[in-house]
């Protein structure tokens, strides 16, 4: 008796001679090989082209111009600004500048100016081939914590020196880069039983931030003053921004950029490359 294999038809298994099945498999394999010659070079190339070389269609077009870069440096306020569900101000900026500029978030939760300053050389190397057109600098909330309450506290004079060091580090490498400062925002004292974050201390460091920004001739958004009395409305946990708070900060950033672009006589107008958003 010839050897048989069982092939399911959906109703019952029927025996098929092995010889016939083998011939069928050979025919299928041959068809696949021929099909591979016809379409494999097209479909296969399409799948792997992105890993090896740009698609041929792009060879006939002009090379894309690098998009301007907006770099955001900050603490957890900036880090959480990427959260879409919170309408994070970085996410909103990325939407504003879609296809025109890239908005990069380098916010780091818990960080202070003391943490950031040593990382400047690495950031300069990272962006050496594509210097940022604009850096939005938001630091001071953690620096302002009450002394001995956390290990984040940075004394006022060091805070100012660190801010200047960060800015000068970028400007020495990228003289055309512009800066926009954001002061520490408000905090809700009712939410902190340990009193590590105090609204009055945030205000003191906001003043220091404005002092540095003005000395360096860059614009500053005084979030602490603008948000006074709105703590219950704009904060999610007494310190970080909720949806309303993020939208407010986004609007202030956009207003600062538009205002600077509208005053062309300023020495350092803010823009994302040559495309300010009004």
Automatic annotation (TrEMBL):
SGNH hydrolase-type esterase domain mapped to chain residues: 73-247
Keyword terms of this UniProt record: Membrane, Transmembrane, Transmembrane helix
Short name of one Pfam family: Lipase_GDSL_2
CDD domains assigned: Isoamyl_acetate_hydrolase_like
Membrane spanning residue stretches: 27-52
This protein's name: SGNH hydrolase-type esterase domain-containing protein
SUPFAM superfamilies: SGNH hydrolase
InterPro entries: Iah1-like, SGNH_hydro, SGNH_hydro_sf
């Amino acid at each position: 008796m010839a050897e048989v294999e069982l092939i399911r038809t959906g109703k019952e298994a029927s025996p098929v001679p092995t010889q016939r099945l083998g011939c069928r498999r050979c025919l299928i394999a041959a068809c696949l090989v021929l099909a591979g010659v016809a379409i494999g070079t097209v479909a296969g190339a399409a799948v792997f082209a992105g890993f090896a070389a740009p698609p041929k269609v792009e060879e006939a077009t002009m090379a894309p111009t690098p998009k301007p870069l907006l770099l955001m440096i900050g603490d957890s306020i900036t880090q959480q600004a990427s959260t879409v569900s919170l309408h994070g101000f970085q996410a909103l900026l990325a939407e504003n500048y879609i296809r025109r500029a890239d908005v990069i978030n380098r916010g780091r939760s818990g960080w202070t100016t003391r943490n950031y300053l040593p990382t400047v050389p690495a950031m300069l190397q990272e962006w050496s081939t594509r210097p940022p057109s604009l850096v939005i600098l938001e630091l001071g909330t953690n620096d302002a914590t009450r002394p001995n309450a956390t290990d984040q506290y940075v004394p006022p004079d060091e805070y100012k020196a660190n801010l200047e060091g960060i800015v000068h580090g970028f400007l020495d490498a990228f003289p055309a880069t512009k800066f926009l400062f954001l002061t520490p925002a408000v905090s809700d004292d009712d939410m902190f039983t340990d009193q590590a974050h105090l609204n009055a201390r945030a205000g003191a460091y906001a003043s220091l931030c404005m002092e540095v920004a003005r000395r360096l001739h860059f614009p500053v958004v005084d979030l602490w003053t603008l948000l006074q009395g709105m703590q219950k409305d704009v904060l999610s946990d007494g310190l970080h921004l909720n949806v309303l708070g993020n939208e407010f900060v986004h609007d202030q950033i956009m207003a600062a950029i538009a205002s600077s672009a509208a005053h062309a006589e300023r020495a350092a107008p803010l823009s994302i490359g040559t495309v300010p958003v009004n």
